[in-house]
Design a protein that fits this description.
By secondary structure, the chain is α/β, with parallel strands linked by helices. The protein is built from 16 helices and 20 strands.
Length: 452
C-alpha cells in the first residue's frame, strides 16, 4: 500500500536542513504540516508559509504532538523526549527524515555509514557512478537532504546516501540495495546512552535488506564485521590488510577485485590523490560499490584521479616558514583523530578538543608518543586532554582558534606539521565542524600574511 499523507496532520520537529526539506516535501504531498523548532522560526519561514506550513516555535507541547497523525524528526532531534514519548504512547508513528523520503523514492538506495569516512566515501562513490553515466545524486547526512531528491527520483536513479546513527535510529522500512559499513568505534555517546545503543543504530542499515541485496563491509574492522555477521544481504568486502575472497583489496601497485580466486585490476594506486591510509580504505569501499553497480574500471580511475579530498578532511591549509598546516576538522571523534595523527610520521603539533562525545583520549597515547611533539587543547575537553597527555608531551591551552594556531605554530619545528584533529564535536565554540575548519584556515592565513 502506497504511503499517503494527504490531509494528515504531520509534525516536523527541527528546523534545520533536513527538517525544512521534510516540511516542504510533506506540504507538496498534501499533508497539513506544522514545523516545531525550539529555536524559533527558520529563515525559510516565508517560503514554507506559502506552502501552507504552520509553525510551533519554542518549547514542544506534548498535547500538540500527541494529536498528530505522524511525527517526523530531524536527525539533530533526540527521539527520547517527553513530548515525543507521549505521542508514541498515544499511537502516533515517529520516523526520521531519511525514513520519510525513502518511502517515496523510485530509485534504489546505496547507503553508507560508519564512524569515520562517510563523507569521503559517499562523495567518491557518487563520482564513480556519475563517470559511468548513472544518475547518482549524493545526499542524506552530506549535502542535500534526501527529501530534496524525491521529486527527481526515477527507477534508474541510484541515490548515494550518507547516513548517520542519528538518521538510522529513526528508520523503519529504509531499504538500501547496497549498504556500506566502513568501520565502527565509540562515538556520539553524548547522544546514545551506551556504545551498544550506538552500535544498534548503525546496524539498522542492514535491517530491511533481503538476500538479493548487498552488504559491503570493511574486513579490516572486527567490530564492523561482527555487526554485519547476521545481515541477510550478500557480502562483498573490502580491506587493506585482511585476506579477501570476494571483494576489493590492494595487491602490489593496484587496487583489485578478487573473485573466484582470481584478481582483476581496477585502478593503479598511483591514481589515488588522498593522503592517509584510512582514506585509501574509503577508496576501496567506493570501488567495491562501483563493482556491484557495474562501473567500469576506467570510470573508477577517472573519478579517483579527479578527487583530491573533501574540505576539512586532511585538507592542506597552508605553510608558514616550513611548517605545514592541515585542517582535519571532520575528525570529530577519537577514532578519527587517531587516523589523523597516524597520517604523519613525526614532528606533529596537534590541536585537539571541543565538546567531548565519549570514548577515551588515552587511546591516542601510543600515536601521540610516536608522532606528536606538542598538543594545543581547546574547548570544554581541555581538562581531559591534559589528564591524558600531560606526562607524555607539552600540552598548551588555546583560548580561541586564532590563539590555538599561533600557539601551535610557536611549538612546531621547521619541516613539521600542525594538524587540527579535534576528536570532539565543535558545538561548544563553533556552529559546526565546517565553521571550526574555516576559522582554522583563517588563522593560518593571518600567520601567512604576517610573514612569520
Amino acid at each position: 500500500m502506497a504511503f499517503d499523507v494527504v490531509n494528515k496532520r504531520v509534525m516536523v520537529v527541527g528546523g534545520g536542513r533536513s527538517g525544512i526539506a521534510a516540511a516542504e516535501l510533506l506540504a507538496e504531498r498534501g499533508a497539513r504540516v506544522t514545523l516545531a523548532d525550539a529555536n524559533g522560526l527558520p529563515d525559510e519561514a516565508g517560503r514554507l508559509q506559502q506552502l501552507g506550513v504552520s509553525f510551533a516555535p519554542g518549547a514542544h507541547e506534548a498535547q500538540q504532538f500527541a494529536s498528530s497523525d505522524l511525527i517526523v524528526l530531524s536527525p539533530g532531534v533526540p527521539p527520547q523526549q517527553s513530548a515525543i514519548d507521549a505521542a508514541r504512547r498515544a499511537g502516533v508513528p515517529v520516523i526520521g527524515e531519511v525514513e520519510l523520503a525513502s518511502r517515496w523514492l523510485s530509485g534504489r538506495v546505496i547507503a553508507i555509514t560508519g564512524t569515520k569516512g562517510k563523507s569521503t566515501t559517499t562523495t567518491l562513490t557518487a563520482r564513480m557512478l556519475a563517470e559511468a553515466g548513472f544518475d547518482a545524486p549524493a545526499g542524506g547526512n552530506l549535502g542535500q537532504a534526501l527529501s530534496v531528491q524525491v521529486g527527481a527520483s526515477q527507477s534508474q536513479t541510484l541515490h548515494v546516501v550518507e547516513v548517520s546513527s542519528f538518521q538510522l535510529e529513526t528508520t523503519d522500512t529504509f531499504h538500501p540495495w547496497i549498504a556500506v559499513l566502513l568501520n565502527l568505534s565509540p562515538d556520539h555517546l553524548d547522544r546514545h546512552a551506551t556504545f551498544e545503543d550506538y552500535r544498534a543504530a548503525k546496524g539498522r542499515i542492514f535491517a530491511n535488506q533481503a538476500d538479493s541485496d548487498w552488504a559491503v563491509v570493511n574486513a579490516d574492522d572486527r567490530a564492523a564485521v561482527d555487526l554485519a555477521r547476521h545481515a541477510r544481504a550478500r557480502r562483498f568486502d573490502f580491506a587493506l590488510q585482511a585476506p579477501i575472497d570476494e571483494g576489493v583489496t590492494v595487491e602490489g601497485p593496484a587496487i583489485v577485485r578478487r573473485q573466484s580466486g582470481a584478481a582483476a585490476p581496477l585502478l593503479p594506486l598511483a591514481a589515488v590523490k588522498l593522503p592517509g591510509r584510512h582514506l585509501l580504505s574509503d577508496v576501496l569501499a567506493a570501488a567495491a560499490v562501483g563493482c556491484l553497480a557495474g562501473v567500469p574500471p576506467a570510470a573508477m580511475q577517472r573519478a579517483v584521479e579527479g578527487f583530491s579530498g573533501l574540505e576539512h578532511a586532511l585538507e592542506p591549509a597552508g605553510e608558514v616558514r616550513g611548517v605545514r598546516f592541515i585542517n582535519d576538522s571532520k575528525a570529530t571523534n577519537i577514532a578519527s583523530a587517531l587516523k589523523s595523527l597516524e597520517s604523519f610520521d613525526d614532528d606533529v603539533v596537534a590541536i585537539m578538543g571541543g565538546r567531548f562525545k565519549g570514548g577515551r583520549f588515552e587511546d591516542l597515547r601510543e600515536a601521540v608518543s610516536e608522532r606528536v611533539s606538542a598538543i594545543v587543547a581547546i574547548g570544554e575537553a581541555a581538562p581531559l586532554i591534559h589528564t591524558a597527555f600531560d606526562d607524555l608531551v607539552p600540552v598548551h591551552d588555546g583560548l580561541s582558534m586564532s590563539d590555538a594556531v599561533q600557539t601551535a605554530y610557536a611549538a612546531a619545528r621547521s619541516g613539521g606539521v600542525v594538524v587540527l584533529a579535534p576528536g570532539c564535536s565543535s558545538f561548544d565554540m563553533f556552529r559546526d565542524y565546517a565553521e571550526r575548519g574555516r576559522m582554522f584556515k583563517e588563522a593560518v592565513a593571518q600567520l601567512e600574511r604576517a610573514g612569520r
